[in-house]
Amino acid sequence: AFKKLGHSVVTVGPSSDPITKHDIEEPDEVEKVNGGEIYYYDVEKIVNKWGHFDLILQVEPCIYFYRLGEVDIPNAIWEIDTLLLQSNPFIQRIGGDKYIDQLGHIFTSKYNHIPQYHESGIKHVSHLPLACDPDFHKPFDMREIYDVVFIGNTTYCERQHMFSLLKERFRCWIGSGLIGDNYSKRIRQGKIGFNHGHVGEMNMRFFELMAMGAFQVCNIVHGQELLGFEDRVHLVNYVNDVDLVNIVAEFLNDPRKRERIAQAGKEKVLAEHTYQQRAEEILRICSPA
Questions:
Q1: pTM score
Q2: The dihedral sign for the CA sequence 90, 280, 111, 176
Q3: Pairing verdict, β 216-219 and 236-238
C-alpha cells in the first residue's frame, strides 16, 4: 500500500511464506513466548545501514523494534492480533515495558480495546480497522457449488459449534490454508460467505469477503456501525446459533437479495476500506507537520 502511494519501503522480519523475502530477515534477538517466537530488531542498526526513514512502522504480531528513542524518526505500531487478557497486562503484550514509552503512536484494529489502553495510561492510541486489497481479494465469477463457505482459523470453540450446526443443515466447505486467487475462488463457490469474529473482532475476513463480492453472514462485530456497515444492507448479522441457521435458510432461498447486499458491501469496502487508505491514515497521523 505504501509503495502504491509512491514511497520506498524497506521490510523487516522472518516469514513463514517461502516466497516472501524481506530486506532484513535475521533478528537481533528471539524470545520464546507461549509456544511461539517474538523477533526483536535494533532500529539504530537498521538506520545506520539503510539511512534515514520518514516513518518506522511495526505491524504486530511477533516483530518488534527497539532503541526507537535513539533515532529521530516518527514511529508507530499497528496492533492486530493482540488480546488484552486480565492475566497478561497490556504493556507486556507489546514487547515489554522497556519499549512502550518509545512508541510514537499506537493503532489498534480492535475498537473495543481502546478503553483498556487508556486505563493503562496510554493515550496516543487510535482505531485503525483492517481492510482489503483489490489486487488480492478479487470478485471471481464462479459456479456456486456450496451453500456456505468458510476459510480461516477453525480451532476456536465458538466457531466449531457454528460449523457443526451449519453442516447439519447445509452443503458446506470449511477449511483453512488457501491464499491469493485460490482463496477468492473458493469463497465465490459459496452462496454465502460465513464469518465469525472471534471475541467480536472485526477481522480481515470481514472486509475481504465483501471485496470479493461475496454475500457475508457475520456476527455483530465491534465497531462495524462506526464504519457505516449496516445489517441487511452491506452484510447480514446474526446474534446466536438459532439466528444463524434461520438467516442462512432465509437467504439461500433469495438469490436477488444476496446479490443486492453483496454488491452494496463490495462497493463500500472498495471505496472506503482498502489498505492504501489505511496507509494514508497512518501517514496523516504520524508524518511530521
A1: 0.91
A2: negative
A3: parallel
